[in-house]
Design a protein that fits this description.
This protein has 406 residues and is of the alpha/beta class. It has 3 domains: 113 residues, Nucleotidyltransferase, domain 5 (2-Layer Sandwich); 131 residues, Helix Hairpins; 129 residues, no CATH class. The protein contains 17 helices and 7 strands. The two termini are 36 Å apart.
């Protein structure tokens, strides 16, 4: 039996098809607990969940989680790939929910052996993935909030922006919280500003006279807003930045606690210049790929650090791989770029790539590819990364039966 699941936000449509391509059953149900539970019960009538693969146009979400929890093999299909297959069932490309669920089931019946199946991820890995992804979202929000604060100062208080860009981040926010408008900083002198910086543990090399010169020499804004409104705008934006920074610190602590008890952490914790957050990102994003990959080359390809070759009788092009786990690629490439500052082996791979006229992003991906082979070997053998052994072997041996990725 083959199941086609056409999902939506309010209603779903399911078709059950047999090996001959005949529709055995079909029903529509709402996106409610009762509807999903009733559907899982009806599917169980047609066989054991492990023998009923379900194809659906998404890789995550509540429906996918419920199907995996029930024991159904889930075969995700990209909407673009499914759309390209529509002419198989008619030139008109007609679309209905019932028709889509039938086409999905038929697509699984005829081409299911080409399609990868989702594997349930370890709970600890999923939790770490969720924490690191939320941290990445908060970091992006912090950058946006700081940029908005800088734009606000540039329009209404250029002098405050000059001082803000000259101080450390914590001290700069404290400065704007205390002096949020030109009027509040009008009586500042070099001595008072230097004493204020010393009380807040400023470790920069700029003196109070240099900071006050930046404050005074900045151009005057042509803003028609009152001082009170500017002060309120700046202080509210500063509070936003500080609150986001506080949530990031909270997530950092949670990630460190999750990494400490994760079974994969010991395998990679001794790798050069890998921090708690980066280790959490690597485990959360690369861990699921490790679990489902059968070869090191499949593992490296799904992480997205190898190019894609498109060849025919007339042309051959090797291009950047876009169809990959972007978060996993960012995690491993970021680590690879850091590792070359603490590992002679990594530095040599990177420098050789640069000497071969590769740009920095390309050279970093080449180094990331080498580190992924190290991680594959550690995970496959269940042994922790040992710098001494790694240096003695000079490189990680590949599986003889695997071929080199493009």
């Amino acid at each position: 039996m083959f199941i086609g699941w056409d999902w939506a936000t309010e209603t779903h449509d399911v078709t059950v098809m047999d090996n001959s391509g005949a529709r055995v059953d079909r029903w529509e149900f709402p996106h409610t607990e009762e509807g999903i539970a009733r559907t899982l019960t009806k599917l169980a009538v047609h066989g054991a969940p492990a023998d009923l693969p379900v194809t659906i146009e998404t890789t995550r979400g509540l429906v996918v989680d419920r199907l995996l929890a029930a024991g159904h093999p889930v075969v995700p299909v990209h909407p673009n790939a499914f759309h390209a297959m529509r002419p198989r069932w008619g030139a008109s490309k007609a679309k209905t929910d019932a028709g889509d669920s039938l086409k999905l089931a038929d697509y699984l019946r005829t081409d299911g052996h080409f399609l990868p199946r989702l594997e349930p991820t370890e709970r600890a890995t999923m939790e770490l993935q969720a924490l690191t992804r939320q941290r990445a979202d908060h970091v992006a929000a912090r950058i946006a909030a700081i940029n908005q604060l800088a734009a606000l100062l540039d329009s209404h208080w250029p002098g405050g922006k000059s001082v803000f860009c000259s101080l450390d981040s914590d001290i700069a926010l404290a400065f704007l919280e205390r002096y949020a408008a030109p009027a509040s900083a009008a009586k500042l002198t070099a001595g008072r500003l230097e004493a204020w910086c010393k009380r807040h543990s400023y470790t920069g090399n700029r003196s109070g006279s240099a900071l006050i010169e930046r404050l005074r020499s900045a151009p005057q804004p042509a803003s028609r807003l009152s001082e009170s409104v500017v002060e309120q705008l700046v202080r509210v934006q500063v509070q936003l930045v500080k609150s986001i920074r506080a949530t990031i610190r909270t997530l950092d602590e949670a990630i460190a606690d999750a990494v400490a008890i994760h079974p994969y952490a010991q395998l990679f914790a001794t790798m050069p210049r890998i921090g708690k957050v980066n280790l959490g990102q690597i485990i959360g994003e690369i861990g699921p790929i490790l679990e489902r990959s059968r070869t090191s080359e499949q593992f490296i390809a799904e992480t997205g650090v190898v190019p894609v070759t498109r060849a025919s009788g007339k042309s051959r092009v090797v291009t950047f791989r876009y169809a990959a786990n972007r978060r996993a690629r960012l995690a491993i490439v970021g680590y690879a770029d850091n590792s070359r500052h603490a590992s002679d082996w990594a530095a040599k791979i990177y420098n050789d790539a640069r000497a071969d006229k590769k740009r920095h992003p390309h050279a970093a991906r080449i180094l990331a590819r080498a580190w992924l082979r190290v991680m594959w070997a550690c995970w496959r053998d269940g042994t922790c990364y040992d710098p001494g052994t790694h240096r003695a072997n000079s490189k990680i041996k590949q599986d003889p039966e695997t071929t080199q990725a493009a």
